[in-house]
Amino acid sequence: MGLASATAARTRTPRAACRRGVAARTVLALAGCLALVGCGAGREASRGDEGWARLLENRAWIEEGAAAPGTTRAWMSGGQLMTASCWEEPRFAPWRWTGDTTFEWREGERAVRAEVAMVGPDELVLMLGTGVVAETRRYQSAEVVGDPC
């Protein structure tokens, strides 16, 4: 191996290891959340339409075309939202249903309001915002996509 090849291999290794580390921590955090839900923690927090809630909650959803690669969200039935990406540590925020198909969560100081436009076993489409200005966010189930990083 030449000097240039060895240097390139060393400079790529920490970044790949970091991404694997963040992905591993994300999986562990999600597994921990799912374990709590499996024990029945906070089941009463869910108020959305029962069929839609069953499809949306307690699953990892990977956002298509997100600014941060591999942006993953999991709306837990106990009222916690886990958000992570290939480059970021998992973050947790409260969320709640506000109607049969609408819910909200906080991103920092900003409240995010969403309406479920479509949800199925493998796909989720949300309309974010209110009024004339609404943004569409599409997600695929992590069970279909696998490791996004």
- Unreliable spans are 3-20, 31-46
The rough form would be described as globular
Largest sheet: 8 strands, antiparallel, barrel
| Percent range for β-strand residues | 25-35%
CATH top level is Mainly Beta
Number of helices: 3
**Structural domain tally:** 1
Indicate the CATH topology.
Lipocalin
* DSSP strand count: 8
In sequence order, what are the helices and strands, one letter per element? HHEEEEEEEEH
Structural class by helix and strand composition: alpha+beta
Helix content: 25-40%
Overall pLDDT score: 74
Query: Radius of gyration in whole Å, from Cα?
Result: 17 Å
* Lateral strand order in the biggest sheet: 1-2-3-4-5-6-7-8
Question: Describe it for me?
Answer:
This protein has 149 residues and is an alpha+beta fold. It is 32% helix and 32% strand. The chain has helices at residues 3-38, 50-56, 142-145; strands spanning 61-63, 72-75, 80-84, 91-97, 102-107, 110-119, 123-128, 135-141. It has an eight-stranded antiparallel beta barrel.
